[in-house]
Amino acid sequence: MNSVLYIHLSKLQQNLNVVNSMIGEGVQRMAVVKDDAYGHGMIPLAKFLQDKVEWFCVATIEEAVELREAGITNPVLVFEIPKKGKEHIYAEQNITASISDLSVFERLEPGTDCHLHFDTGMMRLGMLPSEAKKALQMMDQFPRLNYSGLYTHFANADGNASPTVSVQLEQFRNIRSQFPKNLFTHTSNSAGVLYHHEKGLFDGVRPGISLYGYSPGDEIDGLQPIAEWRSKLVQVKPIKQGEAVGYGSRWKAPEDGWLGIVPVGYSDGVFRLLSGKIQVEVEGTLYPQAGTISMDYMAVFLGEKKFEYGTEVTILRDGMLSAKKWAELTDTISYEITTAIAPKVKRVYLDQ
Ligand SMILES: *Cc1c(COP(=O)(O)O)cnc(C)c1O
Prior knowledge:
Elements: E1 3-8, H1 9-23, E2 28-32, H2 34-38, H3 42-49, E3 55-58, H4 61-69, E4 76-78, H5 88-92, E5 97-99, E6 113-117, H6 132-141, E7 146-151, H7 163-176, E8 184-188, H8 190-196, E9 204-205, E10 227-232, E11 235-239, E12 244-245, E13 251-252, E14 257-262, E15 279-282, E16 285-290, E17 298-303, E18 312-316, H9 323-329, H10 334-339, E19 346-350
Parallel strand pairs: 1-19, 2-3, 2-9, 3-4, 5-6, 6-7, 7-8, 8-9
Antiparallel strand pairs: 1-10, 10-18, 11-14, 12-13, 14-17, 15-16, 16-17
The structure holds pyridoxal-5'-phosphate.
Pyridoxal-5'-phosphate (PLP) is lined by residues 32, 34, 79, 153, 189-191, 206-210, 216.
């Protein structure tokens, strides 16, 4: 095994505590575990969370079925527009469908639990506010569906000063006033919870990234990345000042020293764009990654330290080694970093 992604479940608990502290009593937690829990492993995390949150949210019906097959009995909301030919699965497996398009009403099986999803400004999925009346007519026309919820999704909730949140909320409150009062209502992703909770959270919240330990905007105290990615040095060799390392010979040793080879590369999810920009930790000290990251390997300049073959190396964790740092270095977001960690990297769960 070239590397292992350790997942600290105690940190997941701590992150959930941070979310809990922001939402107060009575608001239900709808943990977003789509896309293999952002790369951390959906089933082990769902098992850990099943008695700590009320709901799970996933992107696809296939993910929802995976949860059911693993014995998860919590309510599960699927974000996607039900796929043609797979509509029957919702009612069969007691999975909640999103009605994000007027055409969905007539396709769902009687008895299907569903949440109406309105697009109040994200311009991705969701019915438009102008379609609210038509949606109400559809509810009359298809009375055998179980209409239990109503939601929207924020387009800009990553900073404290996102004016669109208030605009979207106003739109949403207006839509909500047209629908039955008993619908279970939810609007907030992590950023909504962390930065805008005072604007109102309704009945449930949909945190994703915060559970995995990353703040989508300004750093929030108490959130800790749950992932720690470690590998081992597979070779340590002397290098002379001025000798070049890696494809393109883009990096040259600033002084005589030792070079460590780590068997992790861009095929594992360490973007080639990070070449020469990241650091790794060996025995408590940070060392610079040196030269172009290749498909299966990267080099690390160890200076005068000649570590043994097999010495452990931490690639990703927190602070300077966090996915947030990597994201800054490559002009992306932590979500893309963790979801890019390849399935071939074994996930190991700690503090079960
Ligand atoms: C992914 C997603 C979330 C979770 O967002 P985070 O920023 O990870 O908290 C919530 N709601 C919807 C509709 C989503 O697609």
